[in-house]
Amino acid sequence: MLSALILLATSCATPPPAPPALYQANTTAFVIDSLDGTTYQVIQPAPSDKQDNTSLLADAKKNPSFETAVVILENYKEPQPGDQFRDRSTPLFITLRQAGYKHIIFLQGNGVANPAGLITIATYD
Q1: End-to-end Cα spacing for the chain
Q2: Who is most buried in 16, 46, 62, 79, counting CB within 10 A?
Q3: Rounded distance, CA 37 to CA 106, Å?
Q4: 15: which DSSP letter?
């Protein structure tokens, strides 16, 4: 009976969460910093000033040889993707797909413009 209790207790235990995936820099990616739901700034290939999201499609199409787009979501605090992620990422995702990007990666920002080492929220291929 004691062994059955031990087996039951250990079988119901949940494993610890996996460590967050950290992004490794890609020099051939189009990288933007999404400052909020309406403003972004191009980080790579050439830094730009802050712009309204309505200009994103034009900026994204300037790099036809790039297949990967990286979006840094600043001021993003959800522990797991939820409503805030959906509300902020969906318009960006649609715009980047329209521009021809095959791989889109969303990262959790921490106030720096360098995507290397940031936590990956979601990856779409």
Answers
A1: 50
A2: 62
A3: 14
A4: P
Residue 81 DSSP code: S
Place of tokens 């979501």: 73
Dihedral sign of CA atoms 48, 36, 28, 65 in order: negative
Rg of the Cα atoms in the chain: 19
Output the pTM of the full model.
Answer: 0.80
Q: Please report which helix (H) or strand (E) contains residue 30, including its range.
A: strand 29-34
Decide: 92 and 56 in contact? Cβ < 8 Å. yes
Total Cβ atoms within 10 A of residue 61 = 14
Q: CA 41 → CA 46, 89, 101, 112, distances in Å?
A: 10, 15, 18, 12
At residue 66, what is the residue type? F
The answer to whether 89 and 108 have CB atoms below 8 angstroms apart is no
pLDDT of 33-70, one tens digit each? 998 888 999 998 888 899 998 888 888 888 878 899 99
Helix (H, G, I), strand (E, B) or coil at 74: coil
Phi/psi region, residue 98 (left: phi>0; alpha: psi -120 to 50; beta: rest), is alpha
